[in-house]
Amino acid sequence: MVLATLAAGAFAQEAAPAKDAEPSDDSTIVVTASRIASRGFKAPTPTSTIGALEIAQNAQPNVFTTIAQLPSLQGSSGVATNTFSTSSGQQGLSSFALRGLGVSRTLTLLDGQRVVPANIGTGAVDVSLLPQLLIKRVDVVNGGASASWGSDAVGGVVNFVTDTRFEGFKANIALGQTTYGDDKQGVIQVAFGKSFLNDRLHTATALEYHREQGIEAGDFGENAANGRTWYRSSTLVNTGITNNGLPQFRNVDHAQSYTYSKYGLITAGPLQGIAFDQNGNPTNFVYGSNGVPQKDAAGTVAGCYIGFCVGGDTSANVGIGATLQSGINRQNFYNRTSYDIDDNNEVYFTINLAKVGTHNQPNPGTTQAGLTIQCANPYVPQIISQACTTNNITSFKLGTVTPFLPNIRVNTERTQERFVVGANGKFNLFNTDWSYNTYYQHGKETSDIKVRNLLLKARFTAAINAVLLNGAIVCADPVARANGCQPINVIGNQKPSASALAYLQPAVGAFQHTIQTQDVASFNVSGEPFSLWAGPVSVAFGAEYRREAYKAVADPYGNGSSSPYTAEYPADPLLSTGGGNFYAGNYRNGRGSYNVKEAFLEFNIPLINSEAAGVVNLNTAGRATDYSTSGRVNAWKVGLTWDTPFDGIRVRTVQSQDVRAPNLNDLFGPIVSTNLPNFTNPFTNSTLTVSQNQGSNPNLKPEIAKNLSFGVVLANPKWLPGFNASIDYYKIELTDAISGGPNATQLVQYCFDGSVPSACSTFNLTGANPYVNVGSINAASIKTSGVDYEFSYRYARPLGLPGELILRALATNVRDFTTIPGLPGTIPSQTAGQNSGATPDWKGQFIQTYTTEKYTLTLQERWFSDGVIGNQYVVCRSGCPVSTSNNPTLDNNTMKGATYIDLGGTYNIRKGVAAYFKVDNLFNVDPEPSPQTNTGLDVNPALYDTLGRFYRIGLRLNF
């Protein structure tokens, strides 16, 4: 009975299967696609709504997963992405991306309010830090909404709407794991609400604890974690031949680098091809492709490709050694307390305290190619020393993946403190009823990233150069010895001593401590001040002030000596005072802030209201925004809706200009400075020494996007009650896109020849301290277009059976996604249909739910179409044209799509108590390889399921 009641409530209030999710004509609701609050208002911007029932049916411990499955969401960041990253801080970050435009161009709101970003690099909100059990619905606005909501709403808006008047008690308890017995997880969610003082004082609280073990990394070679068999080192190998009628690149499995082996491989010179086993004994390396080492200084291997062979000894491949899913530990506390001043006005206070901790392994060991090993090194086997003498050499090149070193571990912790005080209500002015809402929010996000088991590069170089001194093996460099250097043996799998490991991999590792703050003050009013011939005119207006700031502090080995040395990070003459000393994860200090002042005005104007012509409404809005960093920018929209005289048919269209302002990292991110001597100044034809400042660019300006959508809606026609459908075409053109910039020489040249005028703001070659800021610039543009489809149908007593059948289908067809770098010598790239990225040609979601008073069954299909590795490739097997860098030739450019089938069900044990189960990826469909030109983790976790079949069981209480 509980689920049946939930179902009735969810669909009646939110119209979840219908794309518009609009209220009935006699209700008043703020639709996320607009700021208008008016009876019967229909926003022209397409909006998909996921109700509480659908969230419950999908049975995910994090609501992010449910929303990210919508076809219009492409390239979102989750716990299965960024696991191969060491320093991004995005591990376990649950952030949305609409239209494949990236997480920084999608605005995430909570009850229509901004939330402090959780990552300095992206400026994105971490959804896992939001209260989840009190979510009433989620509105996904599939189109630009900057005129209504401000910066970042280029791809659209995802708004979490909570039940602000919840009363009673409910809970959710669930357990789950994969079919491989890993990623074991548990979640406990509790919410309770109560009214006091004759229902004038109301409080609701939600508590949540969620833990996932994650999926451990595989080892070296091709063995994925816990029996997964799909990894096969798929790689695009380069023949190096561009004009012989055969493809330059070949798509192969079981690629094997010949620049290293698991326990050490001599890679060049007369001893090339000698490998070592785990005990350090010499053996002949097994090259794939019948490769024959040429024993030259370049390390050439005949019969193989550039850098790779196929088959042979693949035991040193490191790609599968990245964590498939980050482990995560989530805790959340949320409370909203409100007091009704009278029947029409309330004041409220909310607090959200949440913490997310994640951990991952980006790779096993550390790949070391081209190490120089002296033949006199006492760790070199005697037979190799003799071979050195025979061949008249004193050293050789060695490649290894250092299996004897502890694997890198990245620990990330994000803590959110969010406080909101506000008021909502109604008042009458000049005989007009007005609605208002106002709030002040203070948000603080603390992020700590700690990377353990990281090599210090200079110390590793010193430690592997060992000599005999007074009968003892020591580091050859006396300066290194004086500062604690302990020699190590990189031949074989000999574990270093504890003191040697402490020297190579300091226990404290790399770290960055970042604090971001966001303060927002907002006031909005909506009403119907007058009427025209076709009905009342609705208006909404308001103003907002926002300030964002951050400060990051990093370790001195990564940042450089500007961070003070401590007992844990003592000064070492071997290490660079400029930082960048770790093998990876070199963090930097940084700080910055900006403020924003904005005001908006929106109208809904009825133009026609007649039985013969239907109902036509004009919806228009404008927003003026003043950034302290880049000045003023405007956003606007103009939309039309036409409820035609034909039963249930509505036409809608909207054109908008939307903005995405540069975030704190874009503007004030950490800077790495390098001196460039003999730099040519083309303006004076002279040379000088300049400081190249690599990093952010404080002169960036907002990105500008033009959004267009046009669609047709069929809403509950009399001839087919319960049926809803919509088809919407969209087109987005983003200009002045912020992207990685060229080097210092190129930037100055672009300004000199006028090819990129914005480059002129990145340098100053005069004065006592000439510099060039090498970072992001406003040069690129993106064009994307496609069609969204959504259909739903509710059918009571299907085939005469009791209960109700609910069908829903959503699909997005991406027809174009073109990125134009905007720099001289570059060409546009087309990524629509590129399954190695985020925008397949087609992405669909199909849901069938049969519900009765006693039980509910749900079947879901998640599907995306076949695609390609890259659209730049020319596919051929013979008779190939000349291969170029822009259009290389390739023998196989296909990537299969996938269909994942999920099955779930709920059984109502008694009133208020329901048990449920869920099986995701029922048929355990393996991911398709996404081969690159290296042997990394060659799958695309942003699109493909890398976990496999997943089982969940749980219990819900609702009293």
TrEMBL record:
Domain TonB-dependent receptor plug: 42-157
Domain of life per record: Bacteria
Localisation: Cell outer membrane
Membrane topology label: Multi-pass membrane protein
Keyword Membrane found: yes
Major location category of this protein: membrane
Domain called TonB-dependent receptor-like beta-barrel: residue spans: 414-922
Motif (TonB C-terminal box): 942-959
UniProt entry keywords in alphabetical sequence: Cell outer membrane, Membrane, Receptor, Signal, TonB box, Transmembrane, Transmembrane beta strand, Transport
Pfam families: Plug, TonB_dep_Rec_b-barrel
Assigned protein family: Belongs to the TonB-dependent receptor family.
Protein name as it appears in the record: TonB-dependent receptor
Annotated organism of origin: Asticcacaulis currens
